[in-house]
Structure formats: C-alpha cells, structure tokens
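Hi R.,

Here's the chain you asked about this morning:
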Amino acid sequence: MQMIPHSRPTLGEEEVLAVAEVLRYGHIVQGSEVHRFEAELAGQVDAANAVAVSSGTAALHLALVALGVGEGDEVIIPSFVCAALLNAVRHVRATPVLADINPDTFNIDVRDVEHRLTPRTKAIIVPHLFGLPAGIRQIIALGVPVIEDCAQSLGSLLAGAPTGSFGLLSVFSFYATKVICTGEGGMVASRDAGLLERIRDLRDYDEKEDDRTRYNYKLTDLQAAMGRVQLRKLPDFIARRQAIAARYDNLLMERGIPRPASPPNREAIPYRYVVRMERLEEFLAAGREAGIGYRRPVFKPLHRMLGRTGYPQTEAAFSTALSIPLYPSLSDAEVKIILNHLSSAL
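And the predicted structure, written out as tokens:
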C-alpha cells in the first residue's frame, strides 16, 4: 500500500528548466537569480526589499541579531509552534518567553502576550499559523518590535494587506513542504532599509574589513531560480489548496467538525487543514493503517520541551488538533481516498 504523505512539494518541468539554465550559465552560488528573487518576494509582500538566506531558521536568527537582541533580553514566542523559533532565540542567547494560543485560531493569544511583557522584552515573534493571519496589529500596538513569521502564510491577507507587510521585519521559509519551496531557504523582508542592510552584511562572512561575527547563510542561484518559478505559481497553488479545502469542508461540516474560521478581515490560505478531533491517537493510528499521513500539526509544544506547565489552550490543541493532508500536488484520486476514509472513520 502506497502512503499518501502528509505533505510534499509541488514541482514541474518549469522548475527543472530554470535550474538547468543556471547550471548552463555556470554561476550556481549567490548571484543575479538571488537578487531577482529578493525583489520579487519583496514586491509580493509590499516590502521595500528582502534578503535571501539559507533557511527560515537563519532568517529568524538574523532578524533577532539585526534588532540587537542578546543575552539578558527576552523574546516572546508561542508555545504551539515548531522548534525553529526556540532555536533562533537561543542562537542569540536571549531568554524565550512562551505564550499560550487563542483556541479559536491556534495563533498566539494577544492578551497572554500582554501579560508576559516585562522591561526585558526585546522582541515578539508572531507566526501566522497554518496560513491564518494572527492579530498582529494588536501585538504591534504593545510597543515592542515584532518579527512577523510568514513561513506558513505567504499569500494570505489581513485587512486587504499581505501578511509580511506588518512587522518591523518579516521572515519566510522555503523548505520543501512550505507554501513555495526551494528545497531549503528563507528570506527576511522589511520596509526598514537599515535593518535589511545589517542582515545583508551578516549573511556572508567573507572579505569584510572588521572582525564582527558573521555567518554563511547565503541562498544559491540554483535555489532562487526554483523559488522564482514557485512564486509565479503561487496564485495557482492557493487556488488548488482552496479547492481541496472546500471538499473537506463539505464533508466535515456535515459531521459538525468545522475548521477554525477566519475572523473578519482575515483572508487565510489553507496551508494546513487542521480540525479538532476527539480520540486523536486512535484517528492517527487508523490513518496509518489506511495509508494516509494524518499528523499533529505541531510535533511537540515548546512548553513540553522545556518541562513547563500552565498553557491550557496549547495543551488542548496538542491533544485534539489533527492535520489532514492538503497541498497542490495532492491528486483528485488521493483526495477521494482521504474523503472516503474520513467519512467511514467518523
């Protein structure tokens, strides 16, 4: 039995040709393709410019460094998120302060963030989880620099403006299963030219006049060529995701299992299709037996990794949240198999 994976990249002949063209030209490291990709991504999110880097984690790390976050500072992040945010905070020797989530959206809870602010809070990282825009304007109003994490939300809108256009800095990931992919890769975008210049300087250590610590965080032209093709396909990718999500909606809403609805003025993209499911472990096991890659949308909450307690909404989400396969390369036949299994299992 062939497994239907939880996620996979959506690639075609256009990506093959774009990468082959770079190989023929012979300049395969950071060059003109990277510069074009940066400009095109910046245009997508209404930023002044952007800096391409080697991963989403590198983007988070350099964003914190550019803001001057360091030892003794605190950075607020949600607990219900992947470990990349925690690792980035540790890279700069700052203290991670975990916040709970809003149970209706799975995004970081603005009220809980407010309660966790201290004079040492130097930054807040706000992911738009599963493609649904977070309440970032309320968090920005708290007066602390905000890093907008758009790893799962490229193409979503908040009050008509693209996610990635609100934070002082916004970061993106182009991992193999993200909204668009370059295999590995990331980007930092901003309207602040000074911050971007710092990040551009930090991503490359070679031929510098001073001895400041810098990194080898460059993206290659091979990856950027693929990314530019993927970015052009973004509207089609989103349309396909929406079509699949609508088919899931029709079935699950009949069973009284709606997914989180977008609050007013938030136009989500269905990066992940996440619903609340009782007896989650049994359902995951049934999926494995049927050859369907259902998963928890977050592998392990950060407060559990750190041995902390006191995050009731995150705990509830971890115990009940189910992510159903949804991505543009999911075929109609595979969608039908998933729908049939959901129907019988429910």
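The mean pLDDT is 96.

Let me know if you need anything else.
M.
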